[in-house]
Amino acid sequence: MVLATQESLKSIARDFKSVKAAADTFVQWANDDLERRVEETSLEVESALPQKRGRKKKNRAGEMAHDEPIMDPERVFEISVHNRILDTALEAIHRRFMTRGTLFADLAWLDPRNFERIRTTTLPNNALEVLSRCLIRFDTSATVDNLQSELKCLAGQWNRLKASHLEHYVTRTVEDGAEGQEDQESSVVNLACAFCKNCPLCCYQILHRLNVFSDAYHLLGLAYKFLLTLSLTQVACERTFSTLKFIKSRLRSNLSAGKLEAFMLMATEKDILMALDTDSVIDKVAEKSELMRKLLL
């Protein structure tokens, strides 16, 4: 998908004539629609870019050459707006996605839709190599051979594993505020989703509910956690920084790193915090010392 988007943008990166033709068609349609809807109206979408008066720069002493300013407004728009926007988009795509192409290719093997391909053909020798380098810092046994062995085993047993009766699972998503309320903040809600059994999240849920992480698929469980915790957008990060402003305020600027981290976790994972049983929390705290046991129990 990323490659297709990049190639599509490259094909129109310098094709300003097609963009201009599409814009002229839209302007003509808009003017005709305005004239049809409103009989007497002075509204009209301009079809030409405004002509700006060029400003001449004074030559410095001894300066012989100077660049002639571009007076054509369409040419100025093509260079300053059209080309700049597309070049920026292509550079951002290359920087964010193409440099991590090998890692994304490794993560694609974890998709259950590719398990049939794994069963019928052999994995490339360099498959899961970059993913192994990311996971080996958490588990030294996460070598390429071990990951490939577990993935081949899971692909072979997937049709049997997904036949288990698992109706739905709970996911967290962001729900926007009501329409017309610009100041309404987005909130994180829990949704019950039906099992499609054809995506990495379903695969993780099945492995987790069957408690097979500690046996045959321990490394794959770690790999799926790594995949599912990758942030696809910066929304969650920006929301966390917004929460940080409320916690570390002017009156609480001397919080230690440990307390700040604890408060941040409680604020960002508020739904999990509110779902905890109060009695179990008290029992955990009481186990810390004999004095706490006497005071709390």
From TrEMBL:
Superkingdom of this protein's organism: Eukaryota
Region listing for Disordered, in residue ranges: 40-64
PANTHER family tied to this protein: DUF4371 DOMAIN-CONTAINING PROTEIN, PTHR45749
Annotated protein name in UniProt: HAT C-terminal dimerisation domain-containing protein
UniProt organism field: Larimichthys crocea (Large yellow croaker)
Lineage: Eukaryota, Metazoa, Chordata, Craniata, Vertebrata
